[in-house]
Amino acid sequence: AMGAGIIECDVTFTRDRHQVCRHAQCALHVTTNILATDLAATCVAPPGPDEEARCCTSDIILAEFKSLCGISDGKETCGTVMSHAESIALFDEFGVGFTPELKSSDVATPDDARLMIEAYVSAGIAPARVWPQSFNPDDVRFWIEHTDYGIQAVFLDGRYEDPAFDHTEPATWQPDMAALREIG
Question: Cα(165)–Cα(22) distance, rounded to whole angstroms?
């Protein structure tokens, strides 16, 4: 309604391996009302005097996730939380492009990159409308080498957060920019 041409869904997984839109896999205590529900018991470190809650999508099933209310910046609201498939249907209805970001996960599996793209294939969304993105170069490489959706894949380079960042030097966890460009 405000004119966005592309909308993002940060994709992570529930315990029963359903894809959901969540900024981070283990931030339900900040972004939903989980602590006010019986599902608070699923949190890895339930709230205590000196402990911070850690509530993860990977610790609950999709039906439990869907029972939660989304909260924006600590405001008392009850926004609808969405599965990835529901977001695809909604964004398609809006006629916009898609930029799903595959979030890193404490329970990641090798199939995560494939499963995220299969959601668009199943929904009949053309590759030209999808800009998949990830901080993991292996995800991007998979999309480029094994799907039609890799042509617009976006590698998110988190090294900029390091004060000593030098784009010409390889990081310990990924190649330098020239090597990344070489592999597509």
Answer: 28
Rounded Cα gap, residues 15 and 44, in angstroms: 13
Number of H helices, E strands in the chain: 6, 7
pLDDT digits (tens, 9 = 90+) for 12-62: 999 999 999 998 888 898 889 999 999 999 998 765 666 678 899 999 999
Neighbouring residues of 97: CB distance < 8 A, sequence distance ≥ 6: 5, 6, 7, 91, 129, 130, 131
Whole-angstrom distance, CA of residue 118 vs CA of residue 104: 18
pTM of the model: 0.85
- Tell me how crowded residue 178 is: count the other CB atoms within 10 A of its CB: 10
Continuous segment of H or E residues that includes residue 7? strand 6-13
